[in-house]
Structure formats: structure tokens, C-alpha cells
Design brief:
Elements: H1 21-33, E1 43-48, E2 51-52, E3 61-67, H2 73-90, E4 94-98, E5 102-103, E6 112-120, H3 138-141, E7 142-143, H4 149-153, E8 164-169, E9 172-178, H5 186-205, E10 211-213, E11 224-231
Parallel strand pairs: 7-8
Antiparallel strand pairs: 1-3, 2-5, 3-6, 4-6, 8-9, 9-11, 10-11
Length: about 230
């Protein structure tokens, strides 16, 4: 398994010092290298210094992720953003998905704001032991056997809800996210597909080859929405 997946943690305490411009340029270069889950969905990633409603997180920098309004947009953003989350963790920087945060301002374009990721120098331990992860068992989030599912199990999620479900069969992994009530609010109901996208990137990082397609006549999982199937 990817070594960083086994030890990453969400960092909520940061050194307030802004990162050196050279480091920020490296982050921008990494942003250009990410691979989307859905190449046909337009998205943007902006680095900003402030965000509203970050709820106790005071980081020197934030990534603001926006997307074209299209089916699969939330899974796509989760998949893209987790590449950067793991990049930060592998390069001495802390980061955290901040679901309720908002950017200070919005550009005048057609892309919809989705979510923020805080990042900067950590003011707490950057990594943790595998035993420190608080996660559901594989049996409660999946059926069938595939070694890549352990990477998905360790993925971060909003309020640690782990609102995903996987069915592994014949080298494929059918992927679902939990349907949440609209009464919980738009942001909360969107977290489940974002979280699935995050988990899917962990699966991708454990795969020799990775594809994600829609299949038909799949088993239904009560309370969950089918998103797509991982294929090699």
C-alpha cells in the first residue's frame, strides 16, 4: 500500500507563517499534474490565503476547488483534491479537507464553488501510526475481496462518516455513496460523493492501471447511490 496513505492525518493546527514562494510554485506545478476522474468535467483550483467559516482551522493557505455543474462533479473534485492532500503529506506539509469553509470571494465565471482544502506547515505531528486510524471495518463498508479496499477504508471523509460502499468482484470494484437527506443541507448532502471520490483516488493509487466506468444491471445497495465501477 502507498506509504503515505498508511500514515496521513488531517492537520488542523498550522504555523501561521506563509509558505515560501518557491514552495507555492511547486504546489502550483503539482496542481497542473493532477489527473481527474472525469476528464470532460471542467474544474479550477485556486490558492488563497483566507477562507470563511473554517471552524477552528486557521491555515496560511487554502485550495479553493470549483467545478462545472455536471453529473459526477463531486466525485471528480474528491478524486482531484486527494491527489494534492497526499502530495502535501508526502512533502512535509499539513492539509485538511474543510467542508463548511467558503472562499472570501468568487470569480465571475460559470464554475461552482465545491470545497476548500487548508494547507501549510503543521504545528502538530504530521503523520500517525496505522493503529491511530479510527475507521469502520472492511466488512461494514464492502463485499468481496480486493486488497485495494484497505486503501479506500483509510481515506478521510467528512465528520469521519465513511459514507461509501464497495462490491468487489472479478477484478472490478462497484462503488456507491450514501444517500443523505436534503434536510441536512446542500453542503452536507454533497460530502458523500466528494468522500467517495477521495476513497477512489486511494484505490487508484494502489492500482497498476485504473479506469472508472458506468455499468448497468448492478446490485442495489439500500440507502446508497451507485456512482461507477473501477476497472483495470
Amino acid at each position: 500500500m502507498n506509504e503515505i496513505i498508511r500514515k496521513r492525518k488531517s492537520i488542523r493546527k498550522y504555523d501561521s507563517t506563509k509558505l515560501d514562494n518557491n514552495i507555492l510554485e511547486e504546489v502550483k506545478n503539482q496542481i497542473e499534474k493532477v489527473t481527474p476522474l472525469y476528464p470532460d468535467i471542467k474544474y479550477s483550483i485556486e490558492i488563497v490565503d483566507k477562507a470563511k467559516r473554517a471552524f477552528g482551522i486557521n491555515a496560511p493557505h487554502y485550495l479553493v476547488l470549483r467545478s462545472e455543474k455536471k453529473e459526477g462533479m463531486y466525485e471528480n473534485i474528491g478524486f482531484i483534491g486527494q491527489q494534492l492532500d497526499l502530495y502535501f503529506s508526502a512533502n512535509g506539509l499539513g492539509s485538511c479537507w474543510v467542508g463548511m469553509a467558503k472562499p472570501e470571494s468568487n470569480p465571475k465565471d460559470s464554475l461552482q464553488y465545491v470545497i476548500c482544502i487548508s494547507f501549510g506547515k503543521p504545528a502538530e505531528p504530521l503523520h500517525r501510526n496505522l493503529s491511530s486510524f479510527k475507521r469502520k471495518s472492511l466488512e461494514s463498508i464492502s463485499e468481496g475481496s480486493d486488497p485495494r479496499l484497505e486503501g479506500a477504508r483509510l481515506a478521510p471523509s467528512g465528520i469521519n462518516a465513511q459514507g461509501w460502499y464497495f462490491i468487489a468482484e472479478g477484478g472490478k470494484i462497484h462503488s456507491y455513496y450514501k444517500r443523505l437527506s436534503p434536510l441536512l443541507g446542500k453542503m452536507m448532502s454533497n460530502l458523500a460523493p466528494i468522500d467517495l471520490g477521495i476513497a477512489l483516488y486511494h484505490i487508484a493509487s494502489e492500482s497498476e492501471s485504473f479506469g472508472f466506468v458506468k455499468e448497468s444491471h448492478l446490485p442495489e445497495v439500500k440507502g446508497y447511490q451507485y456512482a461507477g465501477t473501477v476497472v483495470s
